[in-house]
Design brief:
Elements: E1 9-11, E2 16-18, E3 21-23, E4 27-29, E5 32-34, E6 37-39, E7 42-45, E8 50-57, E9 59-62, E10 65-78, E11 83-95, E12 100-107
Parallel strand pairs: 1-4, 2-5, 3-6, 4-7, 5-8, 6-8, 7-9, 8-10, 9-10, 10-11, 11-12
């Protein structure tokens, strides 16, 4: 993992955390996290790791499970054992054969949380004669 803004952080296997995490460094989760993660680094979910919540990061490698909203401004890499459910907004996506990807996905350059808020569907209005 690259070191963007400090020492990498790690949540070990058999550890459960409930709450929100904000960091400028990379994060590796091998345990369970129920909450939100916001980092200007990379998020790695290990094979036994699980995140339920919202994640905002630059890059992400997922081997474990994710359920929620995922915002990745650059590359999301899903390994063979990955299980993804929810909503995904990403610039680039790499999926290995065998990964489970049950999510609605938006792709595009410069993906940010501000541009991907859910909006009500537009209703077609009848044409007006002038």
């Amino acid at each position: 993992m690259e070191n963007f803004g400090g020492q990498p952080n790690r949540i070990e296997k058999n550890t459960v955390i409930k709450g929100d995490i904000t960091s400028e460094a990379d994060f590796r989760i091998d345990g369970k996290l129920e909450g939100n993660v916001k980092t200007s680094g990379k998020v790695v979910i290990g094979k036994d790791g699980l995140i339920k919540g919202k994640v905002e990061c630059v890059n992400a490698d997922i081997e474990g499970s994710f359920n929620g909203e995922l915002f990745v401004s650059e590359l999301l890499s899903l390994k063979t054992t990955a299980k993804i459910e929810g909503t995904v907004n990403v610039s680039k996506l790499a999926v290995e054969p065998g990964a489970t990807f049950n999510a609605s996905c938006s792709m595009g350059k410069g993906t940010s949380t501000a541009t991907h808020k859910l909006q009500p569907p537009k209703v077609n209005e009848p044409a007006k004669v002038s």
